[in-house]
Amino acid sequence: MALNYTYLKYKEEHSITNNGATFINYEVTKVNCDSQVTVQRGTIASTKTVTLSFKTDGDFQVTLSNGVDVNQSFQILYYNYLLNSLVTSAESLICGCSTCGDCQECNECQSYLSAFMKAYSFNLLNEPKYSDYLTSLMVDAKCEINETVLCSIMNERVYGTATTKDALLKIIANHYLAFYYKDLRLATDSEESTYIQEKYKFSKISKCIKKLGLFFEDPTPSLPVTLVYSEVKETACCEFVNNGGTLPTTTTLPPLPGTTTTTLPTTSTTSTTTTTLPPVVQCLDGMVIETLYIHSSADLLALPLNYIHPCPELVGGHQCNGSLSEILGNGIFLGESKLNNDDGALSGDMTPLGTFICGDYNNTPSVINPNHAWDSYSRYSRIQIDAAQALDVAQVSGGTLIDFSLAYAANTYQSACASAHTSVTWVRITNLQGEVVYNGCPVGNFAQVDVCNPAN
After folding, report:
1. Do residues 16 and 53 make contact, with C-beta atoms less than 8 angstroms apart?
2. Tens digit of pLDDT for each residue in 290-301?
3. SS3 349
4. Which of the four pLDDT bands, split at 50, 70 and 90, describes residue 218?
5. Cβ of 440: how many Cβ atoms within 10 Å?
6. Which residues contact 275 (CB under 8 A, 6 or more apart)?
7. How far apart (Å, rounded) are the C-alpha atoms in residues 361 and 258?
């Protein structure tokens, strides 16, 4: 007998409702190329609804069962973080660099290939969801892209180099439109449609796409999107651009069939593009966040000289498995802090990263002083912020003040561990140069830190 349930995706929320009279067990597994990791599991009582949590992108398999003889499964392709990154890149490139082969006013032209990679990957990972829209758009764009590519080849014949920026912009724009219109078509009501428009920043980016000479119309529900190319352009696309080098007094191109000989005057310019990242990105990239719990006075004395406990009155008193937390910077997930210390079994509920919520990993501070016999209850955890995370935090930041917080997994995922602590965690943050920017025991597991100004 089939299970009676409803799976619903609304905006970015995925939920399962049990419509039957008996319970349903569920398990969410992240499927990788060579492994599978269970990221969420539980039981859905009759008439109840559970919301699935995805903290990372990936291919997830949801398996439902009645605990006896019925198993059903379905796939969720969740790549929301990749899509958000693509939209940000599209906004920066399409709206910031819209002229043919001329990007001197733009600081992010070297990101073209990255944006193309994101667009290509997002389509491939979601195959075949967007195939019909993308195929229609690319067929319509064939002539325009062909003209742009031929322009680039001509440029290469003259100067030995070719610019691909204009062609890449058009390809990225076509992918963006395909993703947007497909997701808009799948919206279930006007509220979700508005959400998708805002998520894609369509009001702004669509205007920028039109400046590329691409004019499009909202498709009817039964037809794929049709892209119409404008025949009016502010500047001719096939203007030659010298990307550096020396030309003789005149350069004569061999005539092509159906063309006349073209003579170009001497032009010698050098175009240099430099990207300056916002200060907050530069300060966050490579930053190390350490979380510690010291259980005894002997361990306190064993700390390295540059590890000064900011609240020694909190030494001791922690002995439970409710201290696995997710570290957030302005709400962006940065990593996990593992301070459980009561011999918790490595089994049961897990976080999306596959960490056992109630498990004790026996991670003493031996990494900072391997010559000391650490108390079995003392704990040390460390994460390092990478460049992608730094950019994500910067996008939701107004400056260099960052709100760091610890969200305890036992609360977030409603796991049956001990109550989460709010005042035993020592947080130490250092930048890439090893300078301490924060050293404290944040009240309520929250601290605001100026990441670009080392602590005195």
Report:
1. no
2. 999 999 999 999
3. coil
4. low
5. 15
6. 107, 108, 110, 111
7. 74
Residue 42's nearest CA partner among 8, 9, 65 is 65
Q: Cα separation of 330 and 396, whole Å?
A: 7
- Residue 35 pairs with which residues in a beta bridge? none
The count of C-alpha atoms lying within 13 angstroms of the C-alpha of 435, restricted to the half-sphere facing its C-beta, is 11
pTM for the structure as a whole: 0.48
CA distance 322 to 306: 29
Average pLDDT (35-64) is 90
Sequence-distant (6+) residues with CB within 8 A of 263 are: 250, 251, 252
Max distance between CA atoms of the chain, in angstroms, equals 89
Instruction: Report the side by side order of strands in the sheet with 401-408.
Output: 332-338, 324-329, 401-408, 446-450
Structure confidence at residue 217 (pLDDT): 59
Tokens of 335: 């990593």
Closest CA to 378 of 272, 283, 266, 297: 297
- Lookup: tokens for 324: 């696995």
Q: Where are the beta strands (DSSP E) in 284-386?
A: 288-293, 324-329, 332-338, 379-384
CATH class belonging to 5-78: mainly beta
Residues 6+ apart with CB under 8 A from 249: 266
Mode of pairing for the β-strands spanning 426-430 and 13-18: unpaired
List, in order, residues 6 or more apart from 271 with CB less than 8 Å away.
Answer: 103, 104, 241, 243, 244
How many Cβ atoms sit within 10 Å of the Cβ of residue 298? Answer: 13
Tokens of 447: 């601290």
Helix (H, G, I), strand (E, B) or coil at 317: coil
Short-list 96, 134, 136, 127, CA closest to 112: 96
Q: Which helix (H) or strand (E) element contains residue 407?
A: strand 401-408
Q: What is the Cα gyration radius of the chain?
A: 28
> Strand pairing partners for 362?
none
The sign one gets for the Cα dihedral 301, 303, 306, 308 is negative
Q: Kindly list the domain boundaries of the chain, sorted by start residue.
A: 5-78, 81-265, 279-450
pLDDT score of 150 more than 70: no
Beta-carbon contacts of residue 276 (< 8 Å; ≥ 6 apart): 107
Q: CA of 433: how far to CAs of 280, 284, 343, 401, in Å? A: 15, 11, 36, 19
